[in-house]
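Practice problem 4.
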């Protein structure tokens, strides 16, 4: 998924960079938006839905894509560090050591809640879902303790 996003972003960037640098809007037919990741990315970046990317829309989308890539890389490093037995998954023992799970205490959801393929472990995509679910709760708690 991460590679697909990065590939879509890079395809869009490479094919449209010259036009964007010149400040010219880049047109994209609506039918293509549903056909491939680059078209979907284009549609998401086209904030005013005029079928063109202005330089401002392109920059905003590019910055957002860079933030996503950085976040995914950081999560990948965390995941690798948490995977003590290096089996590319977080098992029940490793799950209990997750800071987000420890901080949630008794309210922590069981591993099975995020184990989409029911193999008793969390692969990376499942780990990301866990972080997306528990991290906002962690941020809210920090805000109330200030």
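Answer key:
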């Amino acid at each position: 998924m991460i590679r697909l996003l990065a590939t879509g972003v890079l395809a869009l960037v490479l094919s449209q960079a010259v036009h964007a640098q010149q400040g010219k809007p880049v047109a994209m037919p609506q039918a293509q938006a549903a056909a491939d990741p680059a078209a979907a990315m284009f549609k998401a970046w086209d904030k005013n839905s005029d079928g063109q990317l202005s330089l401002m829309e392109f920059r905003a989308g590019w910055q957002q894509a860079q933030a996503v890539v950085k976040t995914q890389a950081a999560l990948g490093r965390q995941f690798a560090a948490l995977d003590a037995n290096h089996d590319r998954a977080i098992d029940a023992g490793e799950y209990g050591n997750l800071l987000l799970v420890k901080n949630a205490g008794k309210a922590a959801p069981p591993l099975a809640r995020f184990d989409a393929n029911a193999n008793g472990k969390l692969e990376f995509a499942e780990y990301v879902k866990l972080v997306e679910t528990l991290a906002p709760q962690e941020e809210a708690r920090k805000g109330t303790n200030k």
